[in-house]
Amino acid sequence: MTVGEVADITVVFTDIESSTPLWEAETEAMNVALMRHDQLISTLVVENGGRVVKHIGDGSCSVFGSPTDAVLAAGAINRAVEAESWPTSRPIRVRVGVHRGVAFQRDGDVFGPVVNRAARIEAAAHGGQIVVSASVTESAALPPGWASVDLGQHRLRGVAEPLQLYQITPPSGRAEFPPLAIARRHGRSLPSSRDRFVGRELEVDTLLALIGTNRLVTLTGPGGVGKTRLAVEASRTLLDRSAEEVWFADLSVVGTAAGVIDAVLGELQARPEAPTEPLDAMAAVLAGSHPLLVLDNAEHVLDGVAQLVDGLLERAPGVRILVSSRRALGLGGERVVPVRPLEADGAAVDLFVDRAQMSGAAELDAVEVAELCRELDGLPLAIELAARRAAALTVTEIRAGLRNRLDLVDGSRRQLSRPGRGTSGPRSSGRTRSSTSRRRHTCSASRRRPRNRALRCRSRDHRASEGCPDELSRRAQGAGRRVDRPLWRFGARSGRRQLDHQGLPRAEGHRA
What we know:
By secondary structure, the protein is α/β, with parallel strands linked by helices. It has helices at about 20-25, 25-45, 65-85, 115-125, 135, 200-215, 225-240, 255-270, 280-285, 300-315, 345-360, 365-375, 380-385, 395-405, 470-475, and strands at about 5-15, 50-55, 60-65, 95-105, 110, 130-135, 145-155, 165-170, 215-220, 245-250, 290-295, 320-325, 335-340, 440, 455-460, 465. Helix 1 packs across helix 2, helix 8 crosses helix 10 and helix 11 crosses helix 12 (about 365-375). The chain starts with 5 loop residues before the first strand and ends in a 35-residue tail after the last helix.
């Protein structure tokens, strides 16, 4: 090639896996090992018809005119490194990435997307593993005994479209490796759960279908009904099924429109510089084919979320947005999906049994469990909290406790690292929009019998003298952070558990 010439080449990148700890602990030995490593790479590349462009730290970049030669060189490098006796305390392992495409040359170096993609592919591999793109497998003729394994589509950092990747294994080579070490920013902030997703499997598929055909979908429902868990499970399923990006922004800790913007900028890792507007910076990050942005807990900053969503839908044509809120945003094109409580005779019972067994419960009366779930209105969070007591109390005793205003939860443990509500467990963030531990709430006169005196729910010390139905969802949202103390008492003398399933508490003095 001459300067400025465009050529179809195959690029091979190599790198020593986990070399930094060895350099820190065994500097002299690593210096000797690296010299031997560079000699092996140079010799084997030339023997297989290639050229070493440069050595980069612990790695190398080489080019080949034939993809078959590139693959054979990669196999020879791994075999030689595996057979070498290294002076370090543990063997050296080299990872290899191969990609074919058009490149430019200047002063003996090569440039272009093919080089960048080969480097990203190599970074995704493990020590001893050869990972190549589809452009290589489609044109390389593997010798007998060599194997090619489809690793699926993967989105690499800085590459707009996902790449189909394959693992190439030489004869007698190592064939089993962990999943590709791709540092996916998307999905990294999804709340993790330690329990099984129960009762809404079909709703996940329905929600994904709606997200596929609607750019804005809003999950609505009262606190504790499971909006967050449903959104998280749908997002995780989308990640598993496609190469699309998923971004999750928890808005429960923000209180202003400016806070909404900051929270989303932080999730997207977007840092706008003047004169770039924040929405333009967000749109640039969301410029992929069809990324999904999840905005969780939006009801207390609804106006700010609506403005942000409206702006993003205009600036990022491919973005899809999933919102969870007690109320809809009220924007054009919004698809509102009400999240209903679980069926008392079906999924609610399954959820209670699953969580009760996790807590150590041995025997459960199915009829009593169904009645308890019905008294709890099928709210997943309330069911989970009740199930935690099943190891110490019978279901009959738990129901009696509701009627007699006993503490349902005393000394509960945190369940999730970043939990949501609903079937995922109580939230453990340090501050939520319903921080009732600093407020007192009074049940309205319309909720009490005439002969009763004024009823007060003192959440400061987690006591309720008569019971406040709407307090169930409020206290459930903050339950995870109030440990080793009773969370609430509830139950009116009639034994009814009425909640506002439109998501807005009807009791006077309660904030939405």
